[in-house]
Amino acid sequence: MIDDNGITVVAGATGNIGGRVLAELRRRGHRVRALTRSPERAAFPDGVEVAVGDLADPGSLRPALAGASAVFLLTYDAATGAPLRTGPELAKEIAAAGVRRVSTLWGGEPGPVEQAIAAAGLAQAVLRPVEFMSNTLSWVGSIRDEGVVREAFPELRSAMVHEDDIAEVAVRTLTEDGHAGRDYVLTGPEVLTFADRVRQLGAALGRDLRFVELTEEQAKERMRGWGYSAEAVEHVIGWYADPPREGYTVHPDVEQLLGRPARTFADWVAEHAGAFR
């Protein structure tokens, strides 16, 4: 059953996934409240309410949660990538507000946020996307300037998922019944290596691209230079060094939930090729 009347609070509303969830909810006519720490730096679609709050300070969320029927929740700090340690407090605030549905975006490993939400008896769907296709945007500078891709772990395989598919799945779990207690693994329809991705990008750009292998330490140093916390760096590079099987296994959840095949990397490249030129 679609809930057209309640307010959906979207955490990480200025981020890669949260922003897409917010836009898709508005496109479908739902009432949306964007949760942000810095409203003065944010721009949202017409009709979006804005609330100030921080998942690391659950008490700050009370005004944002007032009257909410659903919450799109993160398990990590969007600014640093570090896992949130405030799960029990978040669960308490969300339950006290009378929220009926929670869609929790997993941060890459089981953590205190989704565990606390489940323990509180809230109707939660956990979304477990594998690698985002949008991670490829980290190659923009080196491809545009040098025709080079630099990465560690050249044999890494990934069933990477389109960020728009993640957002559409999130919207379904936030606005429909039947997802409580479900754990969805979100992948694309194929498994790709770095070589596969570089080849597809090169074909779309009409350029021969080179792959340069980084050491593990060089990959960590680059992430630190991008501003990621030490904890996030170790988690991400550890995942790349020894990915779980589900990270390179195609799962049917996206297709089953959306009633169509998951978007391909070729789809993503066609949408973003201009950024690499």
Largest sheet: 7 strands, parallel
Query: Termini separation (Å)?
Result: 45 Å
| Gyration radius, in Å | 19 Å
Q: Taking all residues together, what is the mean pLDDT?
A: 94
Describe the structure.
This protein is of the alpha/beta class and 277 residues long. The chain has helices spanning 18-27, 62-65, 87-96, 112-119, 140-146, 163-175, 194-205, 216-225, 230-241, 253-258, 265-272; strands at residues 7-10, 31-36, 49-52, 68-74, 101-105, 124-129, 148-151, 157-158, 183-186, 192-193, 210-213. It has a seven-stranded parallel beta sheet with strand order 3-2-1-4-5-6-9, sandwiched between helices. Strands 7-11 form a two-stranded parallel sheet. A two-stranded antiparallel ribbon has the order 8-10. α4 links the parallel β5 and β6. α1 crosses α6 (163-175), α7 (194-205) packs across α11 (265-272) and α8 runs antiparallel to α9 (230-241). The longest helix is centred in the middle third of the chain and has 13 residues, at 163-175.
